[in-house]
Amino acid sequence: MKTAEIRQKFLDFFASKGHQVVSSSSLVPGNDPTLLFTNAGMNQFKDVFLGFDKRSYSRATTAQKCVRAGGKHNDLENVGYTARHHTFFEMLGNFSFGDYFKRDAIHFAWEFLTSPQWLAIPADKLMVTVYATDDEAYDIWSREIGVPAEKIVRIGDNKGAPYASDNFWQMGDTGPCGPCTEIFYDHGDHIWGGPPGSPEEDGDRFIEIWNCVFMQFNRDDSGTMHPLPKPSVDTGMGLERISAVMQHVHANYEIDLFQNLIAAAARETGVPASQETPSLKVIADHIRAVSFLIADGVLPSNDGRGYVLRRIIRRAIRHGYKLGQKGLFLHRLVADLIEQMGTAYPELALRQAEIEDALRQEEQRFSETLDNGMALLEAALAGNQKRLDGATLFKLYDTFGFPVDLTADICRERGVEADLDSFEQEMEAQRARARAASSFKMAGNVEYSGADTHFHGYDKSSVDATVLALYKGQEQVKALAPGEEGI
Predict the structure, then answer these.
(1) CA 145, 19, 111: angle at the middle one, nearest 5?
(2) Measured between alpha carbons, how far is residue 351 from residues 172, 331, 358 in Å?
């Protein structure tokens, strides 16, 4: 079953259960300044769960585009080297806003996964976890669904504090929270790993495919749990993971969508398509993230979301360089991505030219310094050194445009430790120099030591600005009259 078909089946199933199909929100959160990027299906419904917003529907389903590549949620360094890490991924979700609760959520999940009409996954390949004290969820799984007791695992507070558990979800230190139940797929005993809660749980045999969160309580400042008047449901299932299950492969990069993007990356870099080439998987992953971010209005820059985008683009370019491709190539993969995902996300085709132009410009900008930067790095790594000093890290960043995690990525491939602490000291010294230079003397012999000025020309051609100071001759004045010259 192809990835696109699984996505549509999920939405169709929950539509048949009375859910409103809601389009994916932007990767730039519109109502949550605490988030760098949309990283979960529930983000667009946060105000609904908190009671600040009310929709015309009480149950919804989405296929939400997500990015985890900056801030608290950052999987960037693992992408390309593991079976399931991505910068961009799709989260399938169903939500109840004070409508149904545990019983329906569990029955819906089991029906979609195991019913012959839908995914038809053999029940004996699945197992579940519940929060240790959630007897209600346990009884639903055991008595109503019929999951054997040995395949239901109670998970307690395994993270060092009350309610700090893999099976207890919290929006923050206070606020809505509650237990969750997770569904795992068993890839088979030929793969190392143990069930959840066991010493071998970090292995790859048992993979979580679906998480059902039951928002049941409101936690106050004292830690007291108050039952919510309208308990709600928030679920999430990674499309890439369930596609791997349905296509009988172990790694997400083996599913049809990634196979096609890997083949396109191989075509553009001139190497054979192979799952054994991490750089191809990096490029296949990154073309999704960068294209969707640009389609949602993010452009490469030196700070914020734009800098994260620039980091991802330059990481992809460097992996193309590693494969021997020293020309421009990344922008040519946009058409291949649209072929794979354009039907579900029409904004890709609508903004194809803009995406390609932004990528081409960034490729041109970075290619001008990539050769020289790599030469410096190779020289610094010569002689079997085990540590790269912060000064070199900073020079690569400041002079050649190498994001520090890109250099650290290269060091990791060579078994070299990047001295990130020393790099931060170099960065702080640069900030101190910039602060000191904010009191400057211009050609007109004018001394200015007011508020910092900021240059916006990297990513804007015009901007509304405030005049910070005016000088007539060397004297600071409040205004200049018509015809008068000043600074």
Answers:
(1) 20
(2) 36, 13, 11
Confidence (pLDDT) at 80: 75
Which among 84, 215, 106, 202 has a CA at the least distance from the CA of 152?
106
The secondary element (H helix, E strand) that includes residue 308 is: helix 304-322
- Token pair recorded at residue 192: 């190392």
89 vs 65: CA distance, rounded Å: 6
Sign of CA dihedral 120, 124, 128, 134: positive
Do 41 and 236 form a contact (C-beta atoms < 8 A)?
A: yes
% of the chain beyond a pLDDT of 90: 70
Q: What is the DSSP letter of 7?
A: H
pLDDT single digits (tens) 146-171: 999 999 999 999 888 889 999 999 87
Which amino acid is located at 138 in the chain?
A: Y
Rounded to an integer, what distance in angstroms lies between the CA atom of residue 479 and that of residue 469? 9
Q: How many CB atoms lie within 10 A of CB 66?
A: 24
Task: Give the C-alpha separation, 390 to 118, whole Å.
Answer: 54
Query: Cβ distance 213 to 169 under 8 Å?
Result: yes
The DSSP output letter for 143 is: I
Q: Classify burial at 125, counting beta carbons within 10 Å of its beta carbon; exposed 0-12, middle 13-18, buried 19 or more.
A: middle
Query: Concatenated DSSP letters for 336-366?
Result: HHHHHHTTT-THHHHTHHHHHHHHHHHHHHH
Q: Are strands 126-131 and 152-155 parallel, antiparallel or unpaired?
A: parallel
> Is 445's pLDDT higher than 70?
no
* CA distances in angstroms from 186 to 172, 176, 207, listed in the order given: 32, 32, 7
Q: Could you give the angle at which helices 352-381 and 334-341 cross, rounded to 10 degrees? A: 120
Q: Evaluate whether 86 touches 255 at the Cβ level (below 8 Å).
A: no
Work out the average pLDDT over 422-434. 88
Q: Kindly report, residue by residue over 106-160, the tens digit of the pLDDT.
A: 999 999 999 999 999 999 999 999 999 999 999 999 999 999 999 999 999 988 8
**Helices within 125-199 (DSSP H only):** 135-139
Q: What's the distance, CA 328 to chain centroid?
A: 25
Q: CA–CA distance from 485 to each of 153, 440, 444, 477 (Å)?
A: 78, 20, 12, 12
Pairing of β 417-418 and β 387-388: parallel
Q: Where are the alpha helices (DSSP H) in 17-70?
A: 46-50
Q: What is the pLDDT of residues 179-231, one digit of tens each?
A: 999 999 999 999 999 999 999 999 999 999 999 999 999 888 888 999 988 89
DSSP secondary structure letter of residue 23 = P
